[in-house]
Amino acid sequence: MTNLVIKKDVEYDSINHQLTDIYYDAEKAQSKGAIIDIHGGGWFRGNKSKDADASIRFVEAGYLVVTPEYRITPKAFYPAPLEDMDHLYEWLKKSDLPFNHDHIGAFGSSAGGNMTVELAIKYGIPIVSLSGILDIDKWLGEHEDVVAAEGDTSGFNSTASANINQTGANDPFYKWFVTNYFNGRTDQYAEATPVHRVTDKTGQMYLANSLNEFVPTSGVLDMAQALTKHQIPYRTRMMPGSRHAKGYLDDVWDDIEGFFDQTI
User: Fold this and answer.
1) Can you give the residue range of the structural domain that contains 202?
2) Can you name the residues that pair with 13 across neighbouring β-strands?
3) CA-based radius of gyration for the chain
4) Where is the chain membrane-spanning (predicted)?
5) Domain count, the chain
6) 106/126 Cα distance (integer angstroms)
7) Cα 58 from chain centre
C-alpha cells in the first residue's frame, strides 16, 4: 500500500450527528470490499480512534474501512448503539465510496463484537467478533448474587485497547457494564441477547475468546450451537490465558484476514 487516505469525522447520521472515519488506499480504483470496524468500551467509553490500528491493517489487506462513533451511556442506552449501526450500514450501502458494494463485513471487539453479531443477524453479512459481549440474559440470571462494581476505568481512552481488561475474570465489572447498558430495564435482557435471534439468513461468523478472560466463553459456545442449528458456517478460536479482545489480535490476525477473504 502506498497511498493511505484517512477521512476524519464524516457524518453518517444527520439526525443524531454521528461521525465515522474512513480509511482506504487511494492507489486502488476500487477496494475489494468494505469492513465496518466497531470499537469496544462496554457501551460507556471508547471512541473510533481506538481502532485506527486495526483499520489501517484492513486497508493493507485490500479493504476500505469505516470506523464509526456511536452513542454511549450515560447519554444513550440500549438499543441506541445498535440503531446507530443500522444507520451506518444504510449510509454505507448508499455511499459512493470506492469499494465493491456487494461485499461488506464487520469487525469488532468486546461491546463492538456484540454489535457486529447484530449486523450479521440483521443483514446477513460476515463478521468477526473478538471477545464479544454475547451472553447477557443467561449470565445475569446465573449471577444474581454478584454485586456489580465499576472499578477504576480511568485512563481508558489514553491506553491501547490491547492493554485493557487483560487480567482475567472480573464478574463484578462485567455485571456492572452490562446492566449499565440497560439503565435499569431488566425486561430488555432477553431481547438484547443475540443468540435468540439467529436465523437461516444470519451471516457467517468468526468468534474468538480467551479461556480465562473477563468475558465468559458461554457467549461463543451458545452462539456456535445456534449457528449449527441453523446451518450457518462459523469458526471459533479459544485462546489460552486471560487476554481480552485486541489483546490477542496479532495471534488471530491471519485467521481474520483469511475469513474475510473467503466470506466478504
Assistant:
1) 4-152+165-261
2) 18
3) 17
4) none
5) 1
6) 7
7) 15
